[in-house]
Please model this.
Amino acid sequence: MDLFSFSSTMLYTAFVVYLIATIFFGATIRDKRGKAKKGTAGKIGITLTIIGFLAQIAYFITRWMASGHAPVSNLFEFMTFFGMTIVFAFIIIYFIYKLSVLGLFALPVALLIIAYASMFPTDIAPLIPSLQSHWLYIHVTTVSLGQGILSISFVAGLIYLIRQIDQSVKSKRTTWLEVILYSLILFVGFIITTTVFNMMNYSASFEYPSGNNVLTSEYTMPAIAGPTDGTLITEDAMQPWFETPGWMHGVDAGKKFNTLIWSFITGSILYVLLRLILRKRIGAAIQPLLKSTKPDLLDEIAYRAVAIGFPVFTLGGLIFAAIWAEEAWGRFWGWDPKEVWALITWFFYAAFLHLRLSRGWHGEKSAWLAAGGFAIIMFNLIAVNLILAGLHSYA
Amino acid sequence: MNKIKCECGHVNPEGTVLCEACGKPIEGNQHIDGNDGKKLLNMRYDGTARRSQTYNKSIIDKTWSFFSSVKVGVWLIVLALIASAVGSIFPQEMYIPADAVSRDPEIFYEERYGIFGLIFYQLGFHNLYSSWWYMILIALIGVSLVICSLDRFVPLYKALRKQKAKRHDTFLSRQRLFSETEVVSDEEIQKLEKKLKKRGYKVRNEEGHILAEKGRFSRWGPYVNHIGLIIILLAALLRSTPFFYTSEYVWIREGAQEVVPGTKGEYYIENKDFIIENYDENDERFGEAIKQEGGMVPNNYQTNVAVYQAKEAVPGAEPELEKIVEDNIQMNQPIEFGSYTVYQSGYQLNEFTNMTFKIHETDDQNEEALDSFTIDLTSPESEYNLDNGFRVEVGQYYPDYYLDDNGEPASETNFPRNPAFVLLVYPPDSEKPEISFLGIGKNIDATGENQYKVGITDFEMHDVSGLSVRKDYSLPFFVVGAAIFMIGVIQGMYWQHRRIWIRPKKEGIMLAAHTNKNWFGVKKDIENTISGTNIKMVDDQQELEE
Model:
């Protein structure tokens, strides 16, 4: 077996092991009978998590060996690595606070991200000249680690919100909590849609004008939104229902917009189905399971994760980034969209840390902020790459 | 100044909330930190007298109070955050893509993004990050940093130096972590002291009153990192002056030598060769990905250069040059000389160096050359007198020919990428020119009556390399600022200031603890150190505000 397929197998192994570990973490709250047993399930959970993490490390190293450069150079590799740093951050926080329920939420978030990553091209790609630098892995791994730790803050905040928000009446808070959960389900929608159409081998080509050229776009999902001014050139393929609005620009804007629509459709169906099965808000359905967790501890973890993650993020996302930019382009800061959003992330968590100094910002408000921070991180990872074109628009 | 004397004998400055020495709440000042009506004390900045909370009469007082507020600081951060996000909605002017129909911002934003683009442009958001109001916002954050830090650091520093191990009853009982044990033996207390020392606490025992303290230096973390940020902001100010920072760009043809811009004629740079390499399409590792990218993935951009330094330039005379560097510039591998750094920043392949033409009779099927001439495209002459009596006048020269919107010939750039000419050919002994239009793949006889025809017989091409030239003396300041920031932020975030107080009371003790963060950690410390004694574990008395 060559390195590349070994590496892919390792990633797959890690994925499956994380999934099993999640089930064990789930057992820690499901099982209300004996304390001793509860401890065992948690121990198995964390052991499996570590095994999965080691498998993912093996994936990372072997892929590095196979490609000759750190596997953090395209969207697939970067998002996978991000999933890995979330797991790593979870392991650290677990050993500080020994809170099993954290795994029940942190691992699914990591799983979602890894699954999302693998929907993008997974071939080993060569490095373009601007990425050929040791700073590639120094910068990217540090940023990602920082974001991974900050994500744990979101996970703790999310558990806090589900645990604490009054579900007996519908309110703004219950609605926003549903929005968070719904957004996570959209990722599932994206993964399902992509996988299904991949298995069907769906393909439709469009030609569309861009400046003075005519480009082709290869759709892998039936086109609900076709490219702006595009024409379908594949026979027997579905005609688009409407065109992508002209202000959406960038490479393959139409295709990305179409994928987004599909994700929303599938995700929404999934959400509605869940609601029909549960017959209550998803938050309300999970809430009883979290009775035994201490909200104070969750609040502490949400804050502590930011306190640990913020310096790491600053180092990787701003300082290392600036050093590399200085070396590559001769300017350490250039207001490129990705840079701007790294700064926004930094501003946001700086505000978070300062608000913690004031009374009244602990507990629930803090938890909402942690969720907001994660939204900004995800926006920078996904939307900035796909929508706002810039120097980082690889993949 | 209305000094306040506490019952412990310590004299506190006006505005003190908790006595600096014994921590007893000072009557009448509890509203300042919101302690009145609360069971727990507000321990922020140890209840010291802060200027901002004490004086509020003059304009200076009011300004000081305004900027020292964390709330104001957070608002400024949030405003900067929102402004930054707004600027990223559409590309900034410098990132207008090269394939845009027009790169003129006045046209680009409206053409591409419609009404929102127009508004974006008219509000000046296309240069948001260098706009005056964005700068002011950042400067205000700087002011807030300085005032916030001074307002808190000075009194806090004094208070922590003056604190006594002996603390007032109420100070202990109104801490978040507190317990009272009725009977405690001396051995137990000694055991506790020993264990605290073992866990890295500095233990002070004043007549049985114990203060165990750990990680006080972490309290200075925020102030240290604010100093780092201020240095960074000052560095940015320095960088806006030409003495500290210059940025230039130069295009150099292969084989050409240019003065390095911004160096006042001191340095010259020669482009010996520009190299662009692509990955091998049949590469085993990358083949699949390269195919997806459409077959061309660049591997290397490189300019082989020689740099010369001019020896004492005599005005008017050609300077004498001395070669100081011969090197290759690649992406991520700039070269340095003097105080300048040169980066590989762009390239243009296949510009025309020169073109050779011949003149033959229009009817001649063999196109036998009657005369020939070569135009050097880097410096075309206006007229060419040929050996066999022909004279050619260059009527029009379009270095980068295209037809504009009105169908008129024009030049898109000044670079000879697609040269075209209107040539006026004067046959020997004739004063009446024949007009020909020539370009790549074009040879048009405007009148259709020309006796002589001009044809391109040969051409040479070259690549052009784009190099950025930077001088930046402000970098060390940024490095120092960033380093101090990192030290401060780690100091403040990865360590905590923990204090544990023990106050003897009759047979027993009162035990209280405070930390600026990580309550979980300090609880563990207490749990560990009181194990094996009778001392009661502290209760967490936090009032969760709902």
About this structure: The longest helix of chain B spans residues 132-162. The radius of gyration of chain B is 39 Å. Chain B touches chain A through 71 residues (CB under 8 Å). The mean pLDDT of chain B is 89.
